[in-house]
Amino acid sequence: MRGGIGRPLEVVVDDGGVERAIRKLKRKMADEGLMRELKRRRYYEKPSERKKRKEREARRRNARQRAAANRRGGGKPAREKESFGGGGFGDKDTY
Fold this sequence. Notes:
The chain is elongated, with a radius of gyration of 25 Å. It has 95 residues and is mostly helical. It is 51% helix and 0% strand.
């Protein structure tokens, strides 16, 4: 959550635009991740499950960042497989 603890969400209602204010409030709550947090806290989460969830979220976040970097053209190049040429069975040089 970006806002931090204790920071209220404020929505101004102009000229009886209650419906618009509710939509803005819902949008702000979604942006802050408040609904996701409430759903997550609905049930107890074991520490092992919390760790797995955090790892899954980190993988997803990193994949999203890599995809964005690749779209911009600034991502890391794909790793090439290393060939050691150890002269093992099947190499042409060993015959």
